[in-house]
Write the structure tokens for this entry.
Amino acid sequence: MNTAGSNGLHPMRNAMTVDVEDYYQVSAFESAVSRSEWDDMPCRVEANVDRILALFDTAGIKATFFTLGCVASKHPEMVRRIVAQGHELASHGWSHVRVTQQARSEFGADIRRTKATLEEIGGCAVQGYRAASYSIGGANLWALDELADAGYRYSSSIVPIRHDLYGMPEAPRFPFAAAEGRLLEIPVSTVTLAGRNFSCGGGGWFRLYPYALSRWCLRRINEVEGESGIFYFHPWEIDPAQPRIAGSSARARFRHYLNLHRMESRLKQLLSDFTWDRVDRVYPVDAGAVA
């Protein structure tokens, strides 16, 4: 693992996370690929996760893998490799349905099913959850209560920005207690510029802007604000050879395919420039503060 002595940076640890889903399961393509077609699509997630595990092993870091239940049930050995290599296994819901599209009872059943499946396959406790497309916000904060009721200890499902698909700009930028203190919500990293929050926590933003901007933002969070950052990406983002999805919008294609060929090299630089660890070790949850 990198240290302040080896890279000259602030010794603050940051949380590295992977949202484990395949290229055709993303929200951007939900109008072009129905769930009934998923079983007929070429699967690339396992090979991509293995590449990520190799990258992390070379860099000497551990991370948190927010994994879809349907992916885990189809690729149980992949899940076991994640756990065996010392990474944290966490929940991404069953089949990438946004919380905004679920009734409260449906959401509760979904998160319980996924948690039980991951724990059975991985042989470990699952404490964390991340909503599909960061779809928890001001209109459905009841989801955080449901997560606490289901036995989760933390969530990383809110992005405190304005966005056409998600976001809760009024939310705190750094971890805060939710569900009457029973759950820790860990928002994806942002920086504030000219009074507005901008995402710098990964995904398409990391591919869109030059790497130097991401590095500057994370350094600012670590060294100026004295906080840990949390970064995310998807297995399909290091796979520029993935099949192209027909019938999707131009905006969806732009966001999904932009700079895929540059992602792996940028990721390697990010792993080298900062100190990284699992979410549950960067943001330990006080056992007395959760159910």
In short: The chain has eleven helices and eleven strands. The chain has one domain: 18-279.
